Amino acid sequence: MKRMNKLKKEYDDIEIPPELDNLVKDSIQRAKNTKKKHSPMRNWSIGVAAAAALFVGSINASPTFANSLVNIPVIGSIVQVFTIETLIMEKETYQANMKTPAIDGLENEGLQTALNEKYIEENKALFTKFEEEIARLEEAGSGHLGMDSGYEVKTDTEQILSIARYETTTAGSSSTEMQYDTIDKQHNILLTLPSLFKDDSYIGIITTYIKQEMKRQMEEDENTAYLAVEGADVEFSSIQANQDFYITADHTLVISFDQYEVAPGYMGVVTFEIPSDILQDALVGDTYIQ
Amino acid sequence: MFKIEEGEPFVMTKNIKMEQVEQFLIENQNAHYRLAYSYVKNKENALDIVQDSIFKALKSIHRLEEIKYLKTWFYRILVNTSIDFIRKHQRMMVMDDEVLDGYLPQTEDEPTDIDLLDALDTLSPDEKSLIILRFFEDLKIDEVAAILDENSNTVKTRLYRTLKKLRIEIEKGDLE
C-alpha cells in the first residue's frame, strides 16, 4: 500500500484556496436567500470584474428621478418622500449602496428637518462604519463586505405616512435591520407605539397574538420557522414596548422584527399584521387603528 | 469534525436540520474542495463545483430524510456535480497527455510506467470516485456504494480492477 499512501498524501496536499471559506458561507447564505423573495439583498458576486474603480458620489436627485423611485403619493397629498443622496462604493470585494430618503411638504417643519437630518446622519454614520470595517479587513489581509440601505414608503394616505428604512450587511452571511417612522400628517406628529395605547397592556395582547400566529404559520407551512418553539435556543418571549411598527392604509397595525430577532436568518425580516379588534380595548382612540 | 449520533431519531425542526447541514458544509469544506479539485484539476472550476453543490443540497434539503445520511447524501451531490461538469466541459478542458490517456481506451499490454504523481489522472472519473471515496475519504464500501448508487459487490469488483490498473498491491481486508 505504499503507492496508495503516496497518492493519499498527494491528495491531502491539494492546496486549499483562502477564498474557499467565504465562498462556502456566501453560497449557504445565498441559497437560503433565494428561497425568500423579500430579501432586499443583492447578489454579491464572487467573480466580479477585476479592476473596478472606487468612487463615492452623491446624487442629488431631480424630482422626476425621485418620483420614479418612490410610491407616487396620493393625489392631493402634498407630503413627498424622495431620495436626496445615494452613497455608492463599487470595489471587487466591497460594495455599498446607501440611499438616504428625505421628506418634503410636512407642515411641521421642525419635525421634517429633524427626521431628514436624522436620515442623513444615520446613512453617513453607516458609510463611515463601512469604511472603517474595510480598513480593518484590509489590515487583516482581505475580505468581503457589502452594505445596502434604502427605504420604502409603506403607507401614504391623507392622514398617515409610514416610511421603512432597511440596512443589510453582507459579510459571509447577511443580516437586515428595519426601522420605521410613522407620521400623522394632519397633526404633524411622529407616532410611537406606546402613544397609540392607554397603558402598556398592549404588550401582552400583541405578544400573545404573535405567539399564536407563529405556531399557526409553522403548522401550515413547513418552510416557516420561528423561535416561538418551546425549547428553542432563544425563545421569543415578548415584543419590546417600542417594537418597530407601521400602520397600513386600511388602519391596521403591523409589528416588524429584524432578521434573526425572532426567526432563523432565512426567514428574513418578519412582520405580523395585528387584527384591530383585539386591540380595541387598549387603544387610545380609533384615529389611526380601526 | 461533524459527528453523527448513532440511533438518534431524526425528529428536529427544519431550522435545526438546516443548521446541522450548514455546520457540516462549513466544517468539511476542505474535504469537499479536494474532492472536486481531483476531478477538474483547477481551482476556479473546483470552487464552482463546491458552490453549485451547496446550492443543490440546500434546495433539496427536504429530500434528506435522516441526518445520518447527510454525508453520503452530500457526497453524492458533489460527485455527480463534478462528473457532470467534466462531461459538459470535456472538450474545453486543458489536459496534458497523461490525463488525456485516462479518457482513451486502454490497451491491455500498454506499458504502465506512469509517474505516480499523475497516476490518479489516468483513471476515468468513475474510477477516480472509487479510489477517492474509499481510500482518501476513508468511507466504507457500503457508503461508497450508496454514493455511487451501485451495489456493494459491483463496487468491490471495480475497486479491485482500478487498484490493479494503478499497480497497487492490495492486502486482504482493504476492500472490506
UniProtKB/TrEMBL annotation, chain A:
Keywords: Membrane, Transmembrane, Transmembrane helix. The chain crosses the membrane at residues 44-62. It comes from the Bacteria. Coiled coil: none annotated. Residues 196-275 form the DUF3298 domain. Pfam families: DUF3298, DUF4179. Residues 41-123 form the DUF4179 domain. This is Anti-sigma factor.
